[in-house]
Specification:
Blueprint lengths: L24 H9 L18 H23 L12 H5 L1 H6 L6
């Protein structure tokens, strides 16, 4: 720790130092006058409502993918076979038993 008198600011009172990158006082004033404007008037802690039209395409896509995966795990090369060979069956074999689908 260094002992001695407190260091005083060398900037005269009432003036500000320019922001880094500001080349003139005018640029500094423009940058300093910018403020963030928030138009969100929701109370803190509430969750915003998402319109159904924004969710619907993703919900349809997720449902189609889930149904395809369910078919592959539960039925493919068991009762039905859209693909030749036993590759799909062997790939999902443990998952099939884990989910309670019998296969043999």
């Amino acid at each position: 720790m260094i002992d001695g008198p407190p260091v005083e600011s060398q900037t005269p009172p009432g003036t500000t130092t320019p922001a880094p990158g500001a080349s003139s006082r005018q640029e500094h004033d423009i940058m300093a006058s910018k403020t963030a404007v928030f138009d969100d008037t929701r109370p803190i802690g509430t969750i915003p409502a998402i319109p159904l039209a924004d969710i619907a395409p993703w919900a349809v896509f997720a449902s189609v993918v889930a149904l395809i995966l369910l078919y592959l795990v539960s039925t493919e090369q068991g009762a039905f076979a859209l693909f030749q060979g036993t590759y799909v069956h062997e790939f999902v074999h443990d998952g099939r038993h884990l989910l309670g689908f019998p296969c043999h």
